[in-house]
Predict the 3D structure of the following.
Amino acid sequence: MTSFKALFAGLALAAALLPGVAAADYKAEYKLSTVLGKPFPWGVGGERWAELIREKTDGRINVKMYPGTSLVNGDQTKEFTALRQGVIDLAIGSTINWSPQVKELNLFSLPFLMPDYKAIDALTRGPVGEELFRILSTKDVEPLAWGENGFRELSNSRHPVRTPADLKGLKVRVVGSPLFLDTFTALGANPTQMSWADAQPALSTGAVDGQENPLSVFVAAKMATLNQKNLTLWGYVADPLIFVVNKEVWNSWSPEDREAVRAAALQAAEEEVALARKGIAGDDTSVLSDIEGTGVSVVRLTEEEKDAFRQATRAVYDKWARQIGPDLVKQAETSIADRN
Ligand code: X2X
């Protein structure tokens, strides 16, 4: 007995002294959930976060990415609940997919709230972003960094869309929050809610006519081969991504490792945002030329034309502003008006 005790004491001492050895309560693998995998910027960002965590914690924290929201059988609107319950340890989630559980995240889906990239940044990097992180941190997660899916543009298989009337009767796949059903119904379309996994076969068979997603997703998912030959640039909403860790998991890590995971998130998120905007934002619009090169006709709306969509969805904006919280929406409008 005594020799066993001595042996255990000796082993424990050795483990404590060895740098880089995981504490006894660390898991062998931590599960990171994303909707999109590589080569989408979202998935590249996820792989990068996992890689940086491994590096910065000297391998003490081993993260594996599960794209396709496979930890919740592809049901991306259940991701946040699974994260709270600890089925998922870490996630990079779209504000849209978490909106059913965190109503304030619907903010980014208010039609025509954000006119440009600076407006997104004014929200995520300002008081609105802080407030949203505060809210998230009361819901069993530790929010760490803002990434980006992007401005969601409208495509369909039928005809070019230039006015709200062109949307009449179009079957459009939407995701996430009921806000999207309201927006597309207000525009006269026929929206259907379905997961990303179901969307692709539905587009391919023609069960739905159209969809809305960022251009980076349009390209990587080869939407042109899913009959999406008409694309309208209307930038009506943009969805940021949020890097988070389940709170219990977070608390199980040493302070040093928490800071390493946070630094890894900030770095991976910064790179991910740059990738999500590459060829789309600013002067570099090479992604659009690539899309046009695949036979897609692109409609670029004038400000006046955009305004017709804005007017048609104004009641949806007002209704949802009340549900999100008038103070938060007001703060968002102020931050955007003051952006530089
Ligand atoms: O399902 C979508 O459309 C996607 C991939 O953009 C999101 O997860 C919000």
The chain has a mean pLDDT of 94. The chain has two domains: 27-149+240-277, 153-237+281-337. The radius of gyration is 22 Å.
